[in-house]
Amino acid sequence: MKKIENRAVVCFLLALVLAAGMGFFLLRYLFQGGSWASSPFNRHLYNNQGQLIAGTVADRDGDVLSSVEEGRRTYYDNETVRKATLHAVGDLQGNIGTGALNAFADRLTGWNLVNGAFGAGRGGELVLTLDARYNYEAYQALNGKAGAVAVYNYKTGEVLCMVSAPSYDPLNVPGDLEDSDRWKGAYLNRFLSSVFTPGSVYKTVTLAAALEQIPNLDSRSWDCPGSIQIGEETIVCSGVHGEQDIAAAFANSCNVAFAQIAVELGEDVLKTYTEQAGLTASYSLNGLSSAKGAFGWEGITEGRLGWAGVGQDRDLVNPCALMVYMGAVANGGRAAEPYLILRTENAFGIPSLPHRTRRTGTLVARDTAGALAELMAGNVERTYGKSRFPNMDLCAKSGTAEVGEGQSPHAWFAGFLRNEDAPYAFVVLVENGGGGSSVAGSVAGKVLNVMVNGYEK
């Protein structure tokens, strides 16, 4: 009897192990089945050149950006469009990590939990939130400069434009792509995967903190003689602005005023508001994670804090996070989280469920967002020029970020539209481009003009 009992225990334990193994397998199948189905080891989904030969990628208007013809993957017939959408669509070699051909291969195979990869030979359709025309205009506006341009709907989360440069034609890969400085970082999606010194666009965070933490801010004034000594640091301004209130200091992008404000606030307050703004967080766009910003608050001196408050020192910001913050300011403190996949359709023509919009936490208090938006609108009126942005209720901040001796500064322009039919937040970065308003602002103007007015200036 004892022997039978021992065998029963052993059988029971084996059954538990088997059940645990099956449970583990089912969990992995549930969460990783798509990756298994789209693995390059599945030779019926890839040709001898390693190209995915299942599925179609289209933009929101139905323009086919990549499809399969006679067992080979091909792209849109316009070379500039191919370059402008490379970091969203992907390349044939799988070097563009954020490209749909790599990141969303499981959707392209039409894989699902019920049918697995059955029918994957025909593949599915993946429709992106992007509009190829907007990407085209943004790429043209960058005019060969490295950088990033993105626009999204801060109410729905749809990313309408996402361009990273340098880029290249996936059907005609440059022979010196790996060696020439001309193509440095071409595989990298600068909008999602990089961080940069923000310069004066960061003053929007410093200003948000000041609006809440400094009493009687509206009645205060700051004198700008062109520079100021704070501790061991000389904070240099772009001009001599004289006596100015907070609205004028913001419109003038005065380093002298904002460095003093940063020191008055202190590093703990600035750190809190930076984190609340989401500038040290990561966003997930259909599983693609944006890079986290970084700031060197620990052990910071007063002089360095002054520089940090104007977006210099060790400040590093991701363009995607900055764009979402702009959307939150526009939308009363919270914005829709961005996404890239509008819908999918499997090999049997069955569409995906509608996207469920998710919202950020409170990135800025509602009243503060309203006040900040008005001050950003004042920048356009007083500094950037409303005529450059026809039919747009634009709120914006430029930035000219110093990045080292002998290098031209990064040019930034970030903000949002308050147009009822165009609730767009945007970010433009031109690496080593020079002046933020003149260079990055011009890029933003060209793209937004097409999006709002339907024509190119």
The dominant shape is globular
Question: Got a strand count?
Answer: 16
Q: Percent helix among the residues?
A: 25-40%
Q: What distance lies between the first and last C-alpha atoms, to the nearest angstrom? A: 93 Å
What would the average pLDDT be, to the nearest integer? 89
Q: Which structural class do you get from the secondary structure elements?
A: alpha+beta
Task: Report the biggest beta sheet as strand number plus sense, adding barrel if it closes.
Answer: 5 strands, mixed
Strand content: 15-25%
* Rg calc: 25 Å
Sheet with most strands: strand arrangement? 3-2-1-4-13
Number of helices: 15
Low-pLDDT parts are 29-36
Overview features:
about 450 residues; alpha+beta; five-stranded mixed β-sheet
Structure description:
The protein is α+β, with helices and mostly antiparallel strands and 457 residues long. Helices cover 36% and strands 17% of the residues. It has helices spanning 2-37, 79-84, 86-89, 100-103, 105-108, 132-142, 190-193, 203-213, 246-251, 255-265, 267-276, 302-309, 319-330, 366-384, 436-453; strands spanning 56-58, 64-69, 72-75, 125-128, 147-153, 159-165, 222-224, 227-230, 233-236, 242-244, 284-285, 288-289, 341-345, 394-401, 410-417, 424-430. The strands form five sheets. It has a five-stranded mixed sheet with strand order 3-2-1-4-13, with no helix packed on it. Strands 6-5-16-15-14 form a five-stranded antiparallel sheet, sandwiched between helices. Mean pLDDT is 89; it is low at 29-36.
